[in-house]
Amino acid sequence: DGGITQSPKYLFRKEGQNVTLSCEQNLNHDAMYWYRQDPGQGLRLIYYSQIVNDFQKGDIAEGYSVSREKKESFPLTVTSAQKNPTAFYLCASSIQRTGNTIYFGEGSWLTVV
Amino acid sequence: EDQVTQSPEALRLQEGESSSLNCSYTVSGLRGLFWYRQDPGKGPEFLFTLYSAGEEKEKERLKATLTKKESFLHITAPKPEDSATYLCAVQVEGFNKFYFGSGTKLNVKP
After folding, report:
1. How many CA atoms within 13 Å lie on the side-chain side of A13?
2. Alpha carbon distance B12, B15 (integer Å)
3. Which parts of chain B register pLDDT below 70?
4. Which of A18, A22, B24, B47 has the fewest CB within 10 Å, making it most exposed?
5. B91 - beta bridge partners?
6. Contact A106 B101 (CB under 8 A)
7. Looking at CA atoms only, how far is residue A33 from chain B in angstroms?
8. A28 exposure class (CB count in 10 Å sphere: 0-12, 13-18, 19+)
9. Mean pLDDT of chain A
10. B91 and chain A: CB distance < 8 Å anywhere?
């Protein structure tokens, strides 16, 4: 089945540690996105990528990094510079056209311990 | 400033009691308005896309409508399995700029 796979579902980070969240899609979508969701707030865009080897910062990119070496993959690294990383992280993808629908993965929970 | 506001924040209904959720937006250059359903601990599930004022779309007990300033998600005779958070998003400025509302948490009691 086509879809977006995020892993791991649950991740714990120690202070000062970098962690990487995986996102893979087999929908043949050009664009991929990372969003952060906090309780009671809307989704906030961290990074997005329209094509391989290119990506742009979203509204809350500080403390995060991404890569796009393959069309299917868009991993997100939460660095130690992100001071409040505990949140639900959502990866999404879409085709590249105006009015395109974005589709989401099942999400990853990151908790600082 | 572009903004999306959903109301109410939470809604409790009895099974069979119809109601509507609201998504109001103040954006320039609307390219599309999207509704999603999100269950606890899961990613949002796509429901509808609306592109222009006057457009309507239906799926089972759900009907989405769009005006120039807001969208409504009408729920007719809801069932407990309709309980979820419903998210609204708008797309502006081309392909990749989306603004999300904070959602309406719907609880349908049997």
Report:
1. 24
2. 10
3. 1-2, 93-96
4. A18
5. B32, B98
6. no
7. 9
8. exposed
9. 92
10. yes
- Contact present, A3 and A107 (Cβ < 8 Å): no
Question: What is the spatial distance between Cα B72 and Cα B56, in angstroms, rounded to a whole number?
Answer: 10
C-alpha span between B94 and A97 (Å, rounded): 8
Check if the beta carbon of residue A55 is closer than 8 Å to that of residue A72: no
Above 80 in pLDDT, residue A96? Answer: no
Token digits of residue A17: 């540690």
> N- to C-terminal Cα distance for chain B?
41
Helix (H) or strand (E) holding A78: strand A76-78
Residues A1-33 pLDDT 10s: 669 999 999 999 888 899 999 999 999 999 999
With beta carbons under 8 A apart, name residues in chain A contacting B96: 31, 33, 48, 50, 56, 94
Q: Are B90 and B97 in contact (CB under 8 A)?
A: no
B16 Cα to chain A: minimum distance (Å): 27
Q: Which of A10, A32, A33, A43 to mutate to test the interface with B (most CBs of B within 10 A)?
A: A43
Letter for the amino acid at A90? L
